Amino acid sequence: AVVSTQSTRTNLLSVCTSPAESYLIRLVLSECVRALRSWFRMIQVQIVKPFLEPLNGEEFTPSGPIPRHEITFHLPLHRYLAGFISQAINYCGMSLEEVLPSEEVLWCVMEHVLRIQVGIGEILSGLWVRNGFSLRSQEEFYLQGQYCNQCVDLDIFLLQVCVMALDSDLFLTTLLQRYKLDSWFKFGDFASSTQPADTDVQQALVESMLNLILQLVYQRMYMGLSEERMVHLEVVTKLTMGDFTHSQLTDNLPEKPGISELTELFDEVLSKVSDYKQPTNESGQLTQGSYALKPDLWKSEFQPLHVMLRGSYKRGYQLAMDKYKGWYQSQNKTKVQGLWPPFRTPLALNPQCKPLYRILHSRTLHAMLFTVLYKAMRETETVNDNMIYLTFYLIDLCIDAPEDITTPVIERGSLKPDITVAEQEDGTVPQAIVKCILFLQEHRNLPTLYKGKAVEQRVQELCRKLISSPHTFIIKPDQYTLQDVTEALLLMCNSRLQPPLFSRLCVDTTA
Questions:
Q1: Is the Cα dihedral 356, 361, 362, 364 positive or negative?
Q2: How many CB atoms lie within 10 A of CB 122?
Q3: CB 3.0–4.6 Å: which of 222, 297, 350, 460 could bond 301 by disulfide?
Q4: Out of 182-196, 219-233, 279-293, 492-506, which region has the weakest mean confidence (pLDDT)?
Q5: Distance CA 430, CA 397 (A)
Q6: Which DSSP helix (H) or strand (E) runs through 51?
Q7: What are the distances in angstroms from CA 320 to CA 295, 314, 336, 476, 480?
Q8: Burial, 70: exposed, middle or buried (Cβ in 10 Å; 0-12, 13-18, 19+)?
Q9: In 10 A of CB 307, how many CB atoms?
Q10: Which helix (H) or strand (E) covers residue 61, if one does?
Q11: How far is CA 366 from CA 55, 121, 169, 357, 431, in A?
Q12: 115 near 71, Cβ under 8 Å?
């Protein structure tokens, strides 16, 4: 039934590829929204416009019905909605405002799709083991290569639409609630009651949530990505996980609805990015010929975030990182104890999708990143290496994000974002933050990371030098520890917010 639904959707989307079919898209989207509203009534989902209300005088949380803990991977109406919105803005010349449903419908649609992403994080955390293998099997099908474009990719795009159309702070606060991590990101008396007791579960859920935020900013599958670029990305991603035969690669090539057969470009792309290994006959056993990624492509083409999305149960991601580590060590003629994947700049966005960058200017996101770094410096046992990597990656994207996107597509009246990134006329603070991130990337394999404590006087001195001379000052590892640099990064990120999250932690830039 699932395959039949996908086939029908693919056939319908393949018809709507030019502005002449705009009226057809409007008709289908209208029927999708009508059917979704009817379904919401049948399953007793209340369509409520979320709003903010104060909690304990300073905390904020969305008010409204919180869904029960059911999860389903079969959401055909949601994916019809996502597919036709994508076709409208990428091929039919329609604006995003023309094809969006109402805000109330978007919040309800978001809940079901978000529940899948939260469920995957919980499955990887071991929270669904009593349900046997049925749910894990559904998750594997959901992420499987030939179906991912019509399952997880459409769901990611629908969440991206919600990010573009809805209030970013509300979206992120809802994300914290659904992952049950709102207490983990609090301090003092606010931070205890509901967080899970298992530290490993907490780490896995925080890592899953940070990864989801990164995927929402990074992925371009339904935002105008060309057919050739998509085939190239999928083939390279598969080859980073291992060597595969021709049939194994074609079987895992996803089919994207609305465009021509992807296999037409497959052989051309494969010849450019891979080296062929001849069949072998060892001990009387014939091994088929296989394809391996060209060694020189690891430097420029390895996309760790896309591997995370495609590598089911993290097996594929770990295999890719092992191969990347082997290549890195062979290139640098040295062994490393720990190695971060490279930061990759996202591809250019369809102009219709520029509001996606608003989430990177969200005060809530900045507070989340600050909290992870703070816990890394003060409570090392609660933060793992992957969480730190994802946090630095998001900070890097926040610095580079365009600053001209300030309001959501759907206006929220009095709830318009009133927090923006602090303006620096000379750009010294962003440059200083980038220099800290580059230092931490370069010296990540040192065994002393986050051992001991940073010296406050030395950290303040480092901040002053970075801000006063960001282009000429060089951070030397024999003068400043990794703890010092991380603490300086923490302070400068806090001071860059307007107003700062914690005024007592502002950087003193005076001599």
A1: positive
A2: 21
A3: 297
A4: 492-506
A5: 11
A6: strand 51-55
A7: 13, 10, 16, 32, 32
A8: exposed
A9: 23
A10: strand 59-63
A11: 20, 22, 10, 14, 17
A12: yes
Question: Could you read off the pLDDT of 421-477 as tens digits, one per residue?
Answer: 333 444 566 778 778 887 877 776 554 444 455 567 788 888 888 888 877 888 888
Q: Please give the single-letter amino acid code of residue 409.
A: V
Please, where are the H alpha helices in 443-481? 456-468
Can you tell me the distance from the alpha carbon of 71 to that of 114, in angstroms, rounded to the nearest whole number?
A: 10
In DSSP notation, 239-300 reads HHT--B-HHHHHHT----TTS--THHHHHHHHHHHEEEEPPEEETTEEE--EEEE-GGGHHH
Question: Per-residue pLDDT for 376 more than 90?
Answer: no
Global confidence as pTM: 0.82
Buried b (16+ CB within 10 A) or exposed e, 16-46: beeeebbeebbebbeebbeebbeebeeeebe
Contact 184, 202 (CB under 8 A): yes
Determine the Cα angle at 33 with ends 32 and 36, to 5°. 85
189: amino acid identity, one letter: D
Q: Which residue has the tokens 């750009």?
A: 427
Cβ(357)–Cβ(230) below 8 Å: no
Partners of 51 in the β-ladder: 63
287: phi then psi, degrees, rounded to nearest 5: -105, 130
Give the count of alpha carbons within 13 A of 438, CB side only. Answer: 10
Give me the half-sphere count of Cα atoms (radius 13 Å) on the Cβ side of residue 214: 28
Helix (H, G, I), strand (E, B) or coil at 389: helix
Percentages helix, strand, coil for the chain (3-state, rounded to 5) are 60, 5, 35
Of all residues in the chain, the percent with pLDDT exceeding 70 is 77
CA atoms within 13 A on the CB side of 186: 21
- Report which of 201, 197, 69, 194 is spatially closest to residue 126, judged by C-alpha positions: 201
Name the β-bridge partners of 63.
51
- Nearest CA among 99, 105, 110, 100 for reference residue 48: 105
What confidence tier does 12 reach under pLDDT thresholds 50, 70, 90? Answer: confident
The per-residue DSSP string of 179-232 comes to TT-TTTT--GGGSSTTS-S-HHHHHHHHHHHHHHHHHHHH--TTTT--HHHHHH
Query: Residue 127 carries which DSSP code?
Result: T
Rounded CA separation 149/37 (Å): 25
Residue-wise pLDDT tens digits, 123-139:
888 888 777 678 888 88
Surface-to-core class of residue 261, CB atoms within 10 Å of its CB (0-12 exposed, 13-18 middle, 19+ buried): exposed
Instruction: Decide if 227 contacts 260 (C-beta within 8 A).
Output: yes
Is the pLDDT confidence value at 384 over 50? yes
Taking the alpha carbons at both ends of the chain, their separation in whole angstroms is 69
